Amino acid sequence: MIKCLKKKMRVIIFTDLDGSLLDNETFKFDEIKNFIINCLKKGIKLIPNTSKTSFEILEFIKELSFEIPYIAENGSSIHNLNILNPHLSNEIVLARPVREIYEDFTKNIKKKLLLNCNFLSQMDMEKQSSILGLSGRKLELALNRNYTFLITFNGEKNEIKELIEYCHDLGLSFNQGGRVICIGDKVDKLTGMKKVLKIIKSYNEFKDIFTIGVGDSPNDLGMLDEVNFPCLIKRKNNENILNKDKYTISTKEAPSGWMEVVKIGLEKNKLII
């Protein structure tokens, strides 16, 4: 049972969603919902930090039945910070509109590389659904992107490296997720998290904080490397992640693995009494 936090200590959990807090196939979290709500009621702050769109995250919040802040589209925008403090903004945008990102990418990327890029926005609904594992309204929400666009890539490993270099030179981000590549402005999950922390630390109630980070993919590592207690959720696609000794790794997959590592983070660091 989670008890009261130590006086003045604020715990903030920055978490990826798909494959971390949500089951990677069903996108459900029923088995840990009560644990999450109990954490929130005890003063622990939960901030999803995900490649998901704002529209998708709002659906998650609706299912959670608890208002929380969140970071959308790989650090592109921050929402609901006013929940943490009424003086804070409801929305902070850190990225350019997706149409500008798309134009920069398609006009400047080497033609051979561009031919190996498959844009989800140009695919039929059946193909989109098979790649994202979504259908109907959930698929529609996932593709309604304000700051990023999604691709798959057919090229070789050396060509992926070349594509990443091109994105870097153009001031674009290349984020490899569990299912697709997310191209956006030069922001990422770490950018979004750092912005949130910088803002809230100016208020007395957040002077003394302990951060837990939970993720499952390479695009989560920047965020994980900057928190006090980084956690990696067991998945096949994170077997190749180097320096895994830096992270607390779950023995279970999402969503139960999420609860497992968060409990360890709270208990090991004596943040509950």
Concise structural overview:
The chain is α/β, with parallel strands linked by helices.
Biggest sheet: strands, sense, closure? 5 strands, parallel
| Poorly predicted residue ranges | none
SSE pattern: EHEHEEEHHEHHEHEEHEHEEH
The total count of helices amounts to 10
CATH topology of the largest domain: Rossmann fold
- If strands are numbered along the chain, what order do they take across the biggest sheet? 2-1-10-11-12
Helix content: 25-40%
Give the CA-based shape: globular
- Oligomer state of the chains in this structure: single chain
Total domain count: 2
| CATH uppermost class of the largest domain | Alpha Beta
Mean pLDDT: 93
Topology:
Layout: E1 10-15, H1 30-41, E2 45-48, H2 54-64, E3 70-72, E4 77-79, E5 91-93, H3 98-108, H4 111-115, E6 117-119, H5 125-132, H6 136-143, E7 148-153, H7 157-169, E8 172-176, E9 181-185, H8 189-200, E10 209-215, H9 221-224, E11 229-232, E12 248-249, H10 256-268
Parallel strand pairs: 1-2, 1-10, 10-11, 11-12
Antiparallel strand pairs: 3-4, 4-5, 6-7, 7-9, 8-9
Description:
This protein has 273 residues and is an alpha/beta fold. The chain folds into 2 domains: 10-93 and 189-268, 3-Layer(aba) Sandwich (Rossmann fold), CATH 3.40.50.1000; 98-185, Threonyl-tRNA Synthetase, Chain A, domain 2, CATH 3.30.980.20. The chain has helices at 30-41, 54-64, 98-108, 111-115, 125-132, 136-143, 157-169, 189-200, 221-224, 256-268; strands at 10-15, 45-48, 70-72, 77-79, 91-93, 117-119, 148-153, 172-176, 181-185, 209-215, 229-232, 248-249. It has a 5-stranded parallel beta sheet. It has a 4-stranded antiparallel beta sheet with strand order 6-7-9-8. Strand 1, helix 1 (30-41) and strand 2 form a beta-alpha-beta unit. The longest helix is centred in the middle third of the chain and has 13 residues, at 157-169. The chain is globular and about 55 Å long. The termini are close together. The model has no long low-confidence stretch (mean pLDDT 93).
